[in-house]
Amino acid sequence: KGNKAMAIFDGDVAVVTGGASGLGEATARALASRGMRVAIFDLQAERGNTLAKEIGAQFFAVDVTDPQQISEALSGVGGPIRVNVNCAGIAPAGKTVGRGEPHDPSLVAKTIQVNLIGTFYVASQCAAAMVSTDPLQDGLRGVIVNTASVAAYEGQVGQAAYAASKGGVAS
């Protein structure tokens, strides 16, 4: 099985959202060190470009809530997409009721849009690209990893929108 698993890393493309910092950056670094051609999707252009140069990756300024931007970036990765790791996310603090006021509904909507819907948009477009690639020796075409948080199961004070969005990703 070891040889089959390694076949996926030999120059194929890994799309990492939120790849310019945090868990996404660590993932991009790990995949690049194993021979994958990494495509970093993030809005942090300066950090993303710096990291891309450092690890030999490509950087794409992509808003994961915009299916057109995702599609355009995917068309520019230049190779078969075999891995997609979705780490892009936001974590704005906000209580359900804070200082007597209800949580800002636009902040809830934005958090759900980025963390949950953005994850789905990227995963579905990467899956479509994977379906059209030739299968590997074991018949698989690729893998998608969607990251969540323990907040998906046990949100803390001030994490109402974040916990809800990560609960959706976990589901």
Summarize the amount of helix as a percent range.
40-55%
Global shape: elongated
Proportion in β-strands: 15-25%
SSE pattern: HEHEHEHEEEHEH
Number of DSSP strand runs: 7
Q: Number of helical runs?
A: 6
| Structural classification | alpha/beta
- Terminal CA distance reads 29 Å
Kindly provide the radius of gyration, computed on alpha-carbon positions and rounded to a whole number of angstroms: 17 Å
Indicate the mean pLDDT: 93
Low-confidence stretches: 1-6
Note the main sheet.
5 strands, parallel
* Strand order in the largest sheet: 3-2-1-4-7
Overview of this protein structure:
The chain has about 170 residues and is an alpha/beta fold. It is built from six helices and seven strands. It has helices at about 1-5, 20-35, 45-55, 65-75, 105-130, 160-170; strands at about 15, 35-40, 60, 80-85, 95-100, 100, 145. The strands form two sheets. The protein has a five-stranded parallel beta sheet with strand order 3-2-1-4-7, with helices on both faces. The chain has a two-stranded antiparallel ribbon with strand order 5-6. A hairpin with a 2-residue loop joins strand 5 and strand 6. Helix 4 packs parallel to helix 5 (about 105-130) and helix 5 (about 105-130) runs parallel beside helix 6 (about 160-170). The longest helix has 27 residues, at about 105-130. The two termini are about 30 Å apart. About 35% of the residues are buried.
